[in-house]
Structures are given as structure tokens and as C-alpha cells.
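Request: Mind sharing a record?
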Amino acid sequence: ADAARKLPEVAVEQARARGGVWRATGASGRGALVGIPVRAGAGASAVDAVVVLQNRFVAEAFADVVDAPPDVAPLAAILRLRALETGRAELLERLRVAEEQRREAQTRSTEELLTLRRELESTREQMGPARSYPNILFRSTRMKKMLRQVDRVIDTELPVYIHGESGTGKELVARAIHDLGARGRGPFVAQNVSAIPGTLFESELFGHERGAFTGANRSTEGLFKRASGGTLFLDEIGDLPLDLQAKLLRVLETGEVRAVGGTRSTQVNVRVVSATHHDLKELVREGRFREDLYYRLNVIRIEVPPLRERPDDIPILVEHFMAERAAEIGRRPELGDGVMKALVAYSWPGNVRQLENEVTRAALLADDGVVQTRDLTPEVAEARGGARGGGASIGAVAGRLGLDRGTLKERVDRLEALVLEEALERLGNNKSQVSRELGLSRAGLNMKLKRLGLWSGEEDG
């Protein structure tokens, strides 16, 4: 190893001593080393410098230098070095171009993958549930998505927690879970917890023995025993008193109930489906609902969307309610001009229940079998003039944003560009903040900016 490190020094010494090109070949016949003397001018005898070239692999690497005339050898060596540099530069350029092409191909592949994901998600959103739900009327994407979730929980025995505003149809969802599942032939027992008098909570849930309290003239089964083999639906579960929450938790954990005044526990086989319009998590934070019971009930959560978030369902619901009223009033009313537009535009804080009451009222007040806007309550009738909750119509807003033309992909790209431009402007072009706010990786944000033509090439700190 030391000898190998000294070879360049030997080449310098030999070339100086000989005054001409000195060459050596590796001991194994591989590689070559040359020393080339350089003189200051033509005819000069003194050697001013020695150029040393080494190739560790090819024995004939410098044959052209060795065979050149003495005064041409230094020039040949320099040309060889320049050729090596040029070859290296060309190689680096080819590597750079190849890397750039690879990155472009990767970006295209990633963009195509994201596009496919968006298209798949869009297709999935449009797909309806796998099962038929004859008692639930829907057309909207939101309801399709919710019922696809219901599809997946029907065949399980896990507790289900249904959350939604009052009047959204939580009991219909609970009944569908029961009717279409393995327990469909068993009883479905529904109870609004908030409707039970405080003194009768425990008796209603677990039953009581004769003589357990004043007025208990006979033994009575509670809700759990009546629902055994089927489903118990506890609506407004958030109104259950804290002391009974502990007893309900025990029943869920052991599958046993004990009647008020009783001494023996009875095994029950019940699937519990609970519902409320309250935020149970908030009730837990306030100390009004047990955290352990919350997690026991909230194994599978189903969110029933409010009617204002699924206006596509309003026409089919209106037609259903009108058909029901026809049997009661002896005729099927028709809808006059602007009535359906008003019904769709209104925000319905009372949800489907309020819509049903509105349609019933209007059908009864209609003259000549035609419901006019004057037959609607004032707040509903006034909603027909604009979008949901007032303001410009959806079509007008879409037109202003350029979302009323082009393919779906073009419109989505346009909307993405608007969102990104707004976020960049508001956050002072700080891409780190923008990516965090929009839930994107930094690379993902840059890729979108490039694809949408918003890339400035500047990087923030």
C-alpha cells in the first residue's frame, strides 16, 4: 500500500531524471502510470514540471501519450485531461437530464394517481348503499354515504351510537339496523329517555317486582327484558341521570338486569342502539355523562346529516308526504309555481319533522287542490327568493367562480386553484403555513401549485 502511494513520486523522479516520458504498468498487468516532463520553452533542457497520469484499470490507457514526440507529449496529456473532463461533464449532464425526466415522470404518475383517487372518491360518493332501505327516502350523496356505513354495521352485534339533530330520522336508522340484521325477527323496543319521569327511570329500564314501591301492584318487565332477543333503541340517551348511567353500564358489561325490589339478576340478550342530538363528548367534559359509558355506547358512530345539508332529498320527501296527506284529505294536492323552490331553499332547522308538518299544513290549506306559496308559513315562503339562508343563488355563485363550465376535472382544478390562491394571499405566501392549514405535505402543495400553474419557484423559510 505504501509503495502504491509512492508511485506518483517515482514517476516524477524518473521523468525528471530521463528528461522524457516515463511509463509503468501495474504488477498484475492492470493499470498504467506515466510521468510527462514539461519544459518552459522550445529548446529548453531543464524540466520545470512533471504531469502524472494514472489509470488503475487499463494498462494501455496512456499509449497515445507515451508514443507522442517528446515536445508534443505534454500537450497530449493536457488534451487527454480535457477529454476526461468533457466526458465527465457530458456524463453529468446526461445524469441530470435523466434525473429530471425521472422526477417529471414521478410527478406525472403522482398527479395521475391523485386524479384517479379523486375520481374513485367521486364515484364512491355517488354509489348507493348495498342494501335496500324502503323506509328511508333519500337521493342525496350525504345519505348514500351514511347508509353505506349502516350497511357495514347491520351484521355486527356491536353497540351503535346515532348522532343527529332532532327530526333527522335517527329512529328510522335504528329500526333499519334492526330490521335488516340477524335480530330482525326479534322485538324492536324504542324509548325516548327524556320522556320517562325521573322517579320511574330505573323501573322502566329494568322492571320492578310487586310491592317494590307504592303503587307497584304487580311485577313489570323493564325495557331490557322486553327487548331481549332483539334491539333496544334508547333515544336522547344524554338525558339519562348519572346514577342510572352506572347501572346501564353494568348491564352492558354483564348482560344482566335486576328488577327494582328484586334479589336475582336475569340474563338478557339485547343489542343497544343509542341516539341523541346532544354532543355527548361535551357532556362528558361537563361531568354530566360518564366517560366509560360514552366509550361503551360509542363503539360505532353514525352521523345522520341535517336536511339543510341534503337538499336533494327534499323533493322526494315532499312527494311522499303529499301522497300520505292525499289519503287523509281525499285528494292529492299539486304544487304551484315556486313552491318546491321555496321548500328546497329553506334551511329547515326542525329537519324532516318540520318539513312534514309544513307539507301537511299547506296541503290542508290549499284551494282547488293546488298548494301556492301563500299556503306556506312566511319564513318558508320568503326563502324562495335566494339561496339557502339568503344571498345569491348557487348558480350565480358558481358562475362568478367559473365553476359553471368545463369538465368535472376542470371545475375541480379551478376550485382548487381558487382555494390555494386565497390561502397563499392570506398567509403571505408562507407555504409551510398553507400546507399545514390545508392538510397537505409541503411536496404535495408544491406539486399542486405546479400542476395548476401557480408555482412561482420561490421557497419560503
Summary: The longest helix spans residues 73-126. The first strand starts at residue 22 and ends at 25. The two ends are 49 Å apart (CA to CA).
